[in-house]
Amino acid sequence: MTVNILEARGLCYDYPDGTRALDHINLLIQEGSRTAILGANGAGKSTLFLHFNGIFQPTKGTMKYRGQDYKYQRRYLQQLKQRVGIVFQNPEYQLFSASVRQDISFGLLNMGYSSREAREKVNLMGEQMGINYLFDRPTHFLSAGQKKLVSLAGVMVMNPDLLVCDEPSAGLDPANTERFMKVIEKIQQQGSTVVISTHDVNLAYSWADQIYILDQGQVRAGGKPEQVLADKDTLAICGMQQPWILECWEELKKHGLIPAHQPPPRTKEELFQLGDRDLIGKSLV
Ligand SMILES: Nc1ncnc2c1ncn2[C@@H]1O[C@H](COP(=O)(O)OP(=O)(O)OP(=O)(O)O)[C@@H](O)[C@H]1O
Ligand SMILES: [Mg+2]
After folding, report:
1. Distance 22 CA to ligand 1 centre (A)
2. Residue 156 confidence (pLDDT)
3. Are strands 193-197 and 218-223 parallel, antiparallel or unpaired?
4. Of 9, 84, 98, 152, whose CB is crowded by the most CB atoms within 10 A?
């Protein structure tokens, strides 16, 4: 049975200066799924995420967590924050302890883990994220990418029911992005549902089960990555490009180098396995 872990219905949000940042958003996140939210700068991604753990209360519309309407009361929101872990776009808003180890341990100790348990979990997370070497460093002296890694680690170590990462790969080098995606994979295998926002259409295409495209506070498209990202017109309206794998696949199909009935590949490995290699090789020389 599929369980809806999160649902937004007719969600609107106006900032105090009158800016309408979200305009009747409908969105459904199923338990165990991987959702990527795409959209140009200012589309409303961060504003939407701040509704997921109740930091923002909708101007209009509803948010549901596991079928229950959000209650904007202190106790409910405290409990919600233990289930919904958010990594902010700007790590400066997330890091406040003196050292990296203290920062990553903070949530666990707060939740009642013993210092030994917390230490073990933090060590493992540090190893997986490749940041143990930073543990004794003050958080405010870290580089921007290192701050991002530490802020991700501090939320992921809590194993939240729903993990929400706002532009997790922004500012990370390719090796750290790959490492982070592997940690996300593990967390998901342990039962978490994951939502990320990103400007990286290639990453979203290969990783997500479902994609939503936001544009000017509205959902312009939603569904399977290979469907949503095949629609070049919508992508262009929303200021986005197609993933290179899909572009390549369409080009190969157009030239008859792969059978037209093949479903689109999701990874570069799948793309390389498609079609007649001899034919492709001949056409390239
Ligand atoms: N504090 C604020 N007061 C007024 N308007 C705001 C405020 N914060 C954001 N906005 C506006 O709300 C809209 C949505 O902003 P938001 O930060 O959610 O976009 P985003 O999709 O996360 O963009 P980015 O890709 O740049 O992170 C934008 O028009 C932005 O200018
Ligand atoms: Mg943002």
Report:
1. 9
2. 94
3. unpaired
4. 152
* 155 and 283 assigned to the same domain: no
Ligand nearest to the CA of 43: 1
What pLDDT is recorded for position 1? 78
Ligand 1 atom at minimum distance from 19 CA: 5
The half-sphere exposure of 38 on its side-chain side, counting CA atoms within 13 A, is 31
Report pTM: 0.93
**DSSP letter assigned to residue 160:** -
Q: Are residues 18 and 142 in the same domain?
A: yes
Task: State both tokens at 191.
Answer: 């039962």
CA torsion through residues 4, 225, 215, 54, sign: positive
193 and 279 share one domain: no
Q: Are residues 249 and 238 in the same domain?
A: no
Question: Residue 199: nearest ligand to its CA?
Answer: 1
35 lines ligand 1 (CB under 6 A): no
Let me know whether 156 and 200 are in one domain.
Answer: yes
Mean pLDDT by 10 residues, the chain (285 residues): 94 97 98 96 97 97 97 95 94 90 95 95 95 95 94 94 95 92 91 96 95 98 96 94 93 84 86 68 56
Range of the domain at 182: 4-242
Report whether residue 89 contacts ligand 1, using a CB cutoff of 6 Å.
yes
Residues 232 and 260 reside in one and the same domain: no
Which residue from 22, 37, 25, 11 is spatially nearest to 194, judged by alpha carbons?
Answer: 37
